[in-house]
Amino acid sequence: MKLYYYDLGTGLEDLKHPVYSSSGGAGNPVRITLSSDGTLTDFQETYDGADNTRRIEELCGPLSGLADALNSGTDLPDGKRELTPKDDTLLRMYLDYYFSED
Predict the structure, then answer these.
(1) Are 71 and 59 in contact (CB under 8 A)?
(2) Are the beta carbons of 29 and 59 closer than 8 angstroms?
(3) Which end of the chain is more exposed for a tag (fewer CB within 10 A), N or C?
(4) In whole angstroms, how far apart are CA 17 and each of 8, 37, 88?
(5) Long-range CB contacts for residues 67-74, cutoff 8 Å, separation at least 24
(6) Distance CA 45, CA 22 (A)
(7) 36-87, pLDDT tens digit by residue?
(8) What distance in Å separates the CA atoms of residue 46 and residue 50, rounded to the nearest whole number?
(9) pTM, full prediction
(10) DSSP-derived secondary structure letter, 9
């Protein structure tokens, strides 16, 4: 998923309280494969504007419960993990990493 923070640059004088008028997101379900040391080894996504039922089954592999949940639009199975927070957590991490005064 991609997150966009519109007109963020107008409020960077106070990095603890960044100002932006709105934000938005885009993207399709993806399968990301990392090695044991955290290196990205593979990235595959669903197709934009297509019926992705079979593609989601392919990307989920043996996780048929996850594929069923994604294809039906219902909640994810127990033990789900939110990869993209709905608040400004990712923005805060980005600003702290690249613009920290430490």
Answers:
(1) no
(2) yes
(3) C
(4) 11, 34, 11
(5) 70/29
(6) 26
(7) 887 889 888 888 777 889 998 999 999 998 888 888 866 655 655 555 666 6
(8) 8
(9) 0.47
(10) G
